[in-house]
Amino acid sequence: MTTLFVIEDEPDIASVLVDYLRAAGFTPRHFTDGAVALQAALAEPPALLLLDLMLPGLDGLQVLRAVRERGPLPVVMLTARVEEVDRLLGLEAGADDYICKPFSPREVVARVKAVLRRSQPAVLAPPAAPDPDGLAAPTGLRLDETQGTTTLDGRRLELTRKEFSILRVLAARPGRIYSRAQLMDLVYPDALEASERSLDSHVKNLRRKLAAHEPHHEWIRSVYGVGFSFEPR
Questions:
Q1: Rounded CA separation 65/60 (Å)
Q2: pLDDT exceeds cutoff 80 at 116
Q3: What per-residue confidence (pLDDT) applies to 90?
Q4: Are 117 and 110 in contact (CB under 8 A)?
Q5: Which one of 25, 65, 197, 218 counts the least CB within 10 Å of its CB?
Q6: Cα radius of gyration (the chain)
Q7: Phi, psi of 200 (to 5 degrees)
Q8: pLDDT value, residue 84
Q9: 213 — pLDDT class (breaks 50, 70, 90)
Q10: Domains along the sequence of the chain with CATH
Q11: Please, are residues 8 and 32 in contact by the beta-carbon 8 Å criterion?
């Protein structure tokens, strides 16, 4: 069975999460102290951390940063702090998803399953041949950085330079949520005149072009108040 760590110091919340995760077929281990949980995670890594932001010992961000120094262990943050800056701090430190309290335990289970699916692309998708010229994903999407061209299932997408750059950044790390500020830094490194409105316009056009080829799949997910992520099939 898949082992998850529930790192939460509020006993009522932790109890509900543990019950729902166990009912969903997971094996949850509960920790109330950040330092103890980190030591256990480094000694025997679980499949995913469900990590509260405010913890005794080490807080959630400290635990997250320490875990990220060792590898790509999936992490879903939990917090009662809803300020945008807190969400962005968690995402920029490497969290895979972010859930604000109060939340539905069913939503937490669904988010956990989604993150686990995204973190195992080799199992969920057929293998892709190495591509020295660009990004070739097992999703059927191929970005050729040498030519600046994009194809989806062999069909060419007519993208602008900025749309290509945005898709290249997002598709390089499927499921990773990028804030608007992060995308601005990566896509407009030298463009002082760039704005979030311009970025949103490029993302909107990019989503429309992807949907024209495959209308039933949301390739680029919009996370309200946070940013965007690339969602493979």
A1: 9
A2: yes
A3: 57
A4: no
A5: 197
A6: 19
A7: -60, -35
A8: 52
A9: confident
A10: 2-119 (3.40.50.2300), 124-230 (1.10.10.10)
A11: yes
Calculate the CA 81 to chain-centre distance. Answer: 19
Distance (Å, whole) CA 120 – CA 111: 15
Using the structure block, give the residue that is written with the tokens 């041949």: 129
**Could you report the per-residue pLDDT of 130-153, keeping only the tens digit for each?**
344 444 444 688 888 777 788 888
pTM of the model as a whole: 0.54
Of the candidates 89, 18, 182, the residue with the CA atom closest to the CA atom of residue 98: 89
**Structural tokens at position 106:** 């069913």
DSSP notation for 74-142: -EEEEES---HHHHHHHHHTT-SEEEESS--HHHHHHHHHHHHHHT-HHHHS------TTEEE-TTSEE
Provide the token pair at 110.
Answer: 């669904």
Cα three-residue angle 97-128-220, rounded to 5 degrees? 35
d(CA 149, CA 229): 21
Question: How many Å from the N-terminal Cα to the C-terminal Cα in the chain?
Answer: 25
Structure tokens of 91? 């995402």
As a whole number of angstroms, the longest Cα–Cα distance in the chain is 55
Whether the per-residue pLDDT at 10 is higher than 70: the answer is: yes
